[in-house]
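For the sake of transparency, this paper describes our internal protein records without simplification. An entry from our holdings is shown next, in its original layout:
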Amino acid sequence: MSFTLTTPSGFWNPLLWLLFLALFGIIAYLIYSRGNPSYKKDTEQIKPYLSGNPEPTKEKVQVKAGDIYWGFIEALKGYYKVLQAIHTGDMRDYILWYLGIGAIITFILIGGV
């Protein structure tokens, strides 16, 4: 019984794959075992090195959703000022805008402008 799967682009053998997996596991263990033995979890050692500066709070270093679009919003500041001016939060105004734009589109389509 052959465990080798031969294809036009190569072959695959699960026993060979397991052999390489064991080999890489041994290499990973050797690298791990050469680590610094003085390292201790849950001490000051786990804090990031910030050139002697105190670590800021998570809220100060967190990237907020508004920060992601900062450049986009800054580039279109004039457009957003107009939109914020007409944005009232009142649903009746939005329906009025919807009907007004719909009437203009209908007029253009029927009128053939």
The CA atoms of residues 42 and 90 lie 53 Å apart. The two ends are 78 Å apart (CA to CA). The chain has six helices and two strands. The chain has a mean pLDDT of 89.
